Amino acid sequence: xxxKLILPEENSVHLVFHVSLLNKKVGNVxxxxxxxxxxxxxxxxxxxxxxxxxxxxxxxxxxxxVVGLNQWSNSFHEDATWKDLEKIQLxxxxxxxxxxxxxxxxxxx
Length: 109
Description:
Number of helices: 2
Oligomer: single chain
Structural class: alpha+beta
Largest sheet: 3 strands, antiparallel
Low-confidence stretches: none
Radius of gyration: 17 Å
Distance between the termini: 49 Å
Number of strands: 5
Strand order of the largest sheet: 3-4-5
Order of helices and strands: EEEEEHH
Shape: elongated
């Protein structure tokens, strides 16, 4: 399923997106912004990893994994998402290398 947005002609946001790109809305707070998101030449929203806000261990399919609460550019603090740090590391290896080393040292202590 895809949705088509009705936007002004001068807008550079891509008009069609797939529902798999949406995250579940959590909480009752509604944030309205008049600032348009930054988009690239293809019209796709530019999203960059900004920070890891929190870390926890999580059990999934009999495996323990480290997940991080990730803050993304072009998003609000409330929109941070929990993601498997190994998968994030593949995408953002430079950022996580130092953080994972720090986290490992604090777990071993």
